Amino acid sequence: MTATTTDKGRLASVLVILLSCCLVDIALAAGPANQPAIATQDEDSPMRHPDMASDPDMYLQLIERMQEKHLYFASLAHLDAFDRRWPSNQRATLLRADALRETGYPDQAADLYGSLLKGPLAASAQHGLGLIASRKGDLDNALAALSQASQLDPTNAGILNDLGYVQILRRKLAEAGFNLHKATELDPKNALAGANLALFYLLDNKPVQADGIMEWYKLSEKQRKEIIDKAAELNARNTP
């Protein structure tokens, strides 16, 4: 079970959405929001930073912060403004692809990711393609894309988490545990990876370790139940 409040703060909403919906997407990787996010005039608002008109890096940083807050439609509007001034920027293309993926336009996003596969952002592009494939239920292509992304960016905890979850779905438990342990050690505060690691331990018949992980991340009783229920569902799928 990839775009902040802390991961622990996001876990409650994301975990509920995905674990309770049979996790048709990669675990804890949020899909299109069920409710629109409300933008506020805060410290990250582009309107508070007039210097961005002459600084593309600053503008893109602000757009990234908008996406971290799930303001994907607003980020698309600002990417339109950015492209008018600085066209053909690969980082902006990646942000646009991420926003399109999260707002329900996976085909357009896939086209943009495809245009980045030969450049320095290839790992992020493969990650995006893996998320799209997983949400379509195409686990073979999701596994291939995420594996490639991990090879290109081996210390990216977000990629390792998503790869580990797809490996759980494909019942590749040894590989999943290996990648999820790497993800949690690379980013110890990543409660999303922690939840997936607890799921792995349950599927690997190690409930004591799973409980220890859930305790360490201070998951609520409701969140724990959702992970336990998901493990039961996955076990039932693989029972002849």
* Radius of gyration over all CA atoms, rounded: 18 Å
Strand content of the residues, in percent? under 5%
Biggest sheet details: none
Can you tell me the residue ranges where pLDDT is under 50 for at least 5 consecutive residues?
A: 2-36
What structural category characterises the helix and strand content?
mainly alpha
User: Distance between termini?
Assistant: 25 Å
> Please, what is the average pLDDT?
84
Number of helices: 12
Number of strands: 0
Give the overall silhouette.
elongated
Q: What does the model show?
A:
- This protein is mainly α and 240 residues long.
- Helices cover 65% and strands 0% of the residues.
- Helix 4 packs parallel to helix 6, helix 7 runs antiparallel to helix 8 and helix 8 packs antiparallel against helix 9.
- The longest helix is centred in the C-terminal third of the chain and has 17 residues.
In terms of topology, how is this protein built?
Layout: H1 7-19, H2 56-68, H3 72-85, H4 90-102, H5 106-114, H6 122-135, H7 139-152, H8 157-169, H9 173-186, H10 191-203, H11 207-216, H12 221-237
Helix pairs in contact: 1-12, 2-3, 2-4, 3-4, 4-5, 4-6, 5-6, 6-7, 7-8, 8-9, 8-10, 9-10, 10-11, 10-12
Concise overview:
This protein has helices at residues 7-19, 56-68, 72-85, 90-102, 106-114, 122-135, 139-152, 157-169, 173-186, 191-203, 207-216, 221-237. The protein has 240 residues and is mainly α.
